[in-house]
Amino acid sequence: MDALNRMLFLWINATPDSPHWLIRVATFIAQDLILVVPLLIVALWLWGRHSHLPSQRVLVLKTGMALIYALAISGCVGVLVPHPRPFAINFGYQFLNHAANESYPSNHGTIVFTFALAFICWHRVWSGLILMAVGCAIAWSRVYLGVHWPMDMLGGFLVGMLGCLASNLAWHLYGEKLLQLTHQAYRVLFAGPIRKGWVRH
């Protein structure tokens, strides 16, 4: 498995001869494209048709729960199965500054794949597939720039699946109560913007 991981890394990883424009594009994807996750979550909670808001807010909360579970699992795996990043062992080429912390599974991969899987499961398949394409682009960029192994991204995908499963199971136990408490807190904290019509009730 390690030999396959290294082979795939060398196949994807940029070199000093790679086009500078492609490295810049990959840097943008690796660093900034993941911002679609918090922006979309906030937008789905605050705005939308009144008839769609209840289902949107359930989606937001279930996705948030899945992200928390997935990142907790990712953190435990990183501690239990530490794996150095490629540049930490002087393997391949690095084009993005990054701390030499544990590599597996990728936190970026965990977040974006959890988000995509949540939309596939609880929203619409087409929206989830679009987000999955975004996740694949982020996964490619971080391997291309030399800060992750391909298997780190596969690990993020698998952890995302576990996070969504845990969220779905937990929803049947306390999801409705948590949704009610979240609504109450939202109405208190956003009372002014709600009153002015800037955001939905």
TrEMBL record:
Keywords: Hydrolase, Membrane, Transmembrane, Transmembrane helix. It catalyses: di-trans,octa-cis-undecaprenyl diphosphate + H2O = di-trans,octa-cis-undecaprenyl phosphate + phosphate + H(+). Pfam families: PAP2 (PF01569). SUPFAM superfamilies: Acid phosphatase/Vanadium-dependent haloperoxidase. Its EC number is 3.6.1.27. InterPro entries: PAP2/HPO (IPR000326), PAP2/HPO_sf (IPR036938), UPP_Pase (IPR033879). One of its GO terms (molecular function) is undecaprenyl-diphosphatase activity. SMART domains: acidPPc. The chain crosses the membrane at residues 20-47, 59-83, 129-147, 153-174. Residues 60-168 form the Phosphatidic acid phosphatase type 2/haloperoxidase domain. NCBIfam families: PRK11837.1. PANTHER family: AT30094P (PTHR14969:SF13), SPHINGOSINE-1-PHOSPHATE PHOSPHOHYDROLASE (PTHR14969). This is undecaprenyl-diphosphate phosphatase. The gene is ybjG.
